[in-house]
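idk why but the lab printer keeps eating my pages so im just putting this in chat instead. protein + aspartic acid:
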Amino acid sequence: MGRIVQKFGGTSVGSVERIQNAAKRIINEVNNGNEVVVVVSAMGKTTDELVRLAGEISKNPSKREMDMLLTTGEQVTIALLTMALHQEGYKALSLTGWQAGIQTENNHSNARILDIDSERINGLLKDGNIVVVAGFQGLIPETNDIATLGRGGSDTTAVALAAVLKADRCDIYTDVTGVYTTDPRAVKTARKIPSISYDEMLEMANLGAGVLHPRAVEFAKNYSIVLEVRSSMSDERGTLVEEEATMEQNLMVRGLAFEGNITKITVTNMPNEINALSDLFTILASNGINVDIIIQNVMNQEKTNISFSIDSSILSDTQEVLAENQDKLGFESISYEGNLAKVSIVGSGMISNPGVAAMMFKALSDQDVMIKMVSTSEIKVSTVVKQEDMIKSIETLHDTFELDARVPVQK
Ligand code: ASP
Ligand code: MG
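predcted complex ->
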């Protein structure tokens, strides 16, 4: 007998029929002799709708009350799904995050899970129940208040439960059939990746491939939980997220990620002092400004220019913070360039294959794509390009790295 955690995302429980369809998948696993814990998201676009409602009442609603509001979405789903299981004659019981023993840090709207007391779930499983848990929520022990785990956080609930319950599998049911080489809506030749490593998936998720919550991938890596991302609408095998991608080992590039809405800011003629970078980025960080790629250009012995990229939505906040601190930092002026996008290649085979970045730059320059910024890690290269060049860049790179042809790299 195995123990399985199944997670169903919003689309997979978006209507009564879909909830009944999810119930069938759960029952299948139970009939195969498994103990099953289910984690669900709010139905369809419920969470977005609740966010919108709050926005009509207040521009800046209390985070505590936002958590109170948003957690209702998942509660609707756990009750309805459990009723659907009862209807089919199965023993099942729903639990909110706090009833399931999920404790979080004291950080409304984006809390991390600190601990899970799994006693109640274990008891229920022993008594032959299917346990249906609300994703994305937990309790802050010191205040006894409800917290959410950040948008998309139900994935993290599922993986965390799989870890404490020592589950044999964690299946993530979603509205796509797996993780793709790149977004299939943008590139027609994108194909499903059979297997991807935790590190590659983490890069892809952090780079804006929305299929998995990055923290869920981190959790899975830390506890060696194999995830399968698959569709709730078909029986097709999905994508395995695991330690070493088992097929197609060490592809130089396994996938491409991209996101628009990026602005590059340049702070010019800052005094070229030893603490220039630390002063600037400490001020930005303490004002909650999240920066991504950073480039420093030392102009001469006295002066330096520093550029960094941000999400365009925080441009005015960033400008304000910089203006307020201009005297303190001693720079001359600020310039910025909007309508940019980040295009990235990800693959663990890069570690042992020199020249991957060069191939990328060549492919882009052959298409007259101007690269504005670059950043790398061991297994990714990100470039910032004009937003209007984004899709062209992705298509070119998809071809260059033969992502639709499944060509393994010679070692
Ligand atoms: N319902 C929440 C959201 O839409 C959590 C989740 O679905 O993972 O962000
Ligand atoms: Mg999700």
